[in-house]
Hints:
The protein is mostly helical and 190 residues long. The protein has 2 domains: 5-95, Arc Repressor Mutant, subunit A (Orthogonal Bundle), CATH 1.10.10; 99-189. The protein is built from 7 helices and 3 strands. A 3-stranded antiparallel β-sheet has the order 1-3-2. It starts with a helix and ends in a 5-residue tail after the last helix.
Amino acid sequence: MTVSATGYLRKLKEYEKKVISLLVRSGQMKTTSARFATVYAYFLTRRQLTQTQLQELTSFSSGTTSQIVNQLLSFGVLLRNNIPGSHEKQYELVGMGSVLVGSVLRKLQANVNEYRNLVATATAELETIKAKIAAFHEKSGDDSISQLATCAIPERLRRLETFVSEFSAIVPMLDRITEVIKAGMGQDAF
């Protein structure tokens, strides 16, 4: 049984769609959007594409396609080439993901720094509140007034203490995770 060229191309497209679907599901497990994962997956399978080809393959709008291609360009994963005699550009996959991982790690590091600042601010606020309560106790002299004032604050104070305690433990863990990933990739990804 011989397969026609059309039948062969149809089968090839079916297999490609299965591969794309697998790559998209894999990308979504890593918290990327389905559209981003789809475009990236097509670059993984085809290596070079124009935006028009991407639109035909994905059925995404020109705006969506352009936005995702620009993201991939900014990550350093794609290279833009002029097509001679045309206004269209061809995009070529030049990175296999270490740049994407590096980008995610930079965002993770920024989040870790944000958490660290948040914990420092909350810790300072907690100490200020504790100092004010202690000063109030000293000035009031009357235990009933002191107890009344401190009854309104304890729940918020406990929440703040819990937050500081829990996040103080999380920040060093995030630092360690980031360092392990950096060590595994090498510093050149940053």
